[in-house]
Design brief:
This protein has three domains: about 15-225 and about 255-275, Type I PLP-dependent aspartate aminotransferase-like (Major domain) (Aspartate Aminotransferase, domain 2); about 225-255, no CATH class; about 280-395, Aspartate Aminotransferase, domain 1 (Alpha-Beta Complex), CATH 3.90.1150. By secondary structure, it is of the alpha/beta class. It has helices spanning about 15-25, 35-50, 60-70, 85-95, 115-120, 145-155, 210-220, 235-240, 265-275, 280-295, 325-335, 350, 360-370, 380-395, and strands at about 50-55, 75-80, 100, 130, 155-160, 185-190, 205, 225, 255, 300-305, 315-320, 370-375. The strands form three sheets. A seven-stranded mixed sheet has the order 1-7-6-5-4-2-3, with helices on both faces. Strands 10-11-12 form a three-stranded antiparallel sheet. The longest helix is centred in the last third of the chain and has 19 residues, at about 280-295. α2 (about 35-50) runs parallel beside α9, α3 packs across α4 (about 85-95) and α10 runs parallel beside α14 (about 380-395). Helix content is about 35%, strand content about 10%. The radius of gyration is 23 Å and the shape is globular. Bound molecules: pyridoxal-5'-phosphate. Pyridoxal-5'-phosphate binds near residues 84, 160 and 163. Pyridoxal-5'-phosphate binds near residues 59, 85, 162, 163 and 192.
């Protein structure tokens, strides 16, 4: 072991500007939802190109609110990929729905649209209510193709874009960004420290649909509204006095069962400050990806499809290798903490108990036996990356 600092697979980058932004907010009048939330939402929507954005406590809360807003309920079946963080599927379970995992395309690691089509065509119309495709590793799914398929079968789409802020759809003529709402009803992002934009914890929902936007705002805060135009109770009841024609200023109404999924104002300040560096981070991620791709090209041992992919946001840089356990341990010995993304969700004990088993999704399972995510974050230095590349190559010599 050397005294070289450990190299993780991903890490946040906090600048003095970020710290100033948080401290300024801490000494302002607002700790939880205040003016920074609206600023962050506006700036994020502008960055992504969506009409609306709703800041929430974390990416998982974002998924849960999306499932609620789309009325997921017991008896409904929703399709997603097993190669993602478990939350992509769990949001369906929170609402009592059933998760249908479909296999991945082994050349992109993304939900395979051909498999989704086969699944849909095997069952009567109405069996499934939605699809949750994931821009896994930062690679944009072909959302236009999914939209066409969803329209054929009357389904909604939630795009899980946690890995792809700033990524863009190559098939779109104008390079529209992931989560911009042109092909999905709703999209979600996370601001967990390993993601591109860190807020400690945090999440965002983007959409172009005004009705869904209004519903999400209510669900984020207990299902409560202060909008007099929406009130259901009479002014008399609201005021606690007969003969009233207007609602008193204190009055608010809980109209459905919502949650407290708010983001704090100081987290929004951090997110907003980080957002201003998002494009610079993407440039650096792409450069790191290109260097890995070049270093491993022609190697008979190191495979992968993460090279230079148009629109890829490079949350992860994934290679596929034989003897992955050996490589993983050899890298750890050198202080390089590569990671595996992900244990296929359908093989988690919770989902096994719902009937899923080994062999159900062979592409995902084979991918899981071979995949490894190498260090990928904007502050990874050239020297550190070279150390990683040499360590990987040395293992197979
Ligand atoms: C991180 C992540 C989530 C959940 O986000 P949290 O903010 O950690 O709750 C959901 N989906 C994907 C693909 C993620 O990477």
């Amino acid at each position: 072991m050397s005294d070289r600092p450990n190299i993780p697979y991903g890490r946040q980058h906090i600048t003095p500007e970020d710290i100033d932004a948080v401290v300024r907010t801490l000494t302002s009048d607002f700790l939880t939802q205040g003016p920074m939330i609206a600023k962050f939402e506006e700036a994020f929507a502008a960055y992504i190109g969506s009409r609306y954005a709703v800041a929430v406590a974390n990416g998982t809360a974002a998924l849960h609110l999306c499932a609620l807003a789309l009325n997921v309920a017991p008896g409904q079946r929703v399709i997603t990929t097993p190669i993602t963080f478990a939350a992509s599927a769990n949001c369906v379970r929170y609402c009592g729905g059933t998760v249908e995992f479909c296999d991945i395309d082994p050349s992109t690691y993304l939900l395979d649209i051909a498999g989704v089509r086969r699944t849909l065509e095997r069952s009567p119309r109405g069996t499934y209510s939605g699809i949750i495709p994931v821009d896994f590793s930062g690679r944009p799914v072909d959302l236009r193709a999914f939209r066409a398929l969803a329209d054929e079968h009357g389904l909604w789409i939630i795009e899980d874009a946690c890995h792809a802020p700033g990524g863009f759809f190559p098939s779109a003529d104008d390079g529209q960004r992931c989560g911009n709402g042109s092909s999905a009803e709703l999209a979600i992002f996370s601001f967990h420290p390993v993601k591109h934009i860190a807020a400690g914890e945090g999440g965002m929902i983007t959409t172009n649909d005004e009705a869904l936007y209004r519903r999400l705002l209510m669900l984020r805060t207990h299902g409560i509204t202060r909008d007099t135009a929406l009130f259901e109770n009479s002014p008399d009841l609201a005021a606690g006095a007969a003969g009233q024609t207007t609602y008193p200023a204190w009055y608010m109404e809980m109209q459905e069962l919502g949650y407290n999924y708010r983001l704090t104002d100081f987290q929004a300040a951090l997110g907003l400050s980080q957002l201003s560096r998002a494009d610079a981070g993407l440039v650096r991620r792409r450069a790191i990806a290109a260097r890995y791709a070049e270093a491993f090209s022609g190697s008979p041992f190191i495979h992968g499809h993460s090279g230079s992919v148009d629109g890829h946001a490079y949350h992860l840089y994934i290679i596929e290798v034989e003897d992955r356990v050996g490589l993983y341990n050899a890298l750890r010995e050198k202080g390089i903490f590569a990671q595996v993304h992900y244990v296929p969700t359908h093989l988690m004990p919770y989902y096994r108990r719902q009937g899923w088993k080994e062999g159900d999704l062979p592409n995902a399972e084979r991918y899981y036996q071979r995949c490894l995510s190498l260090p990928m974050y904007p502050t990874l230095t050239d020297e550190q990356q070279l150390f990683v590349i040499d360590a990987v190559k040395a293992y197979y010599q």
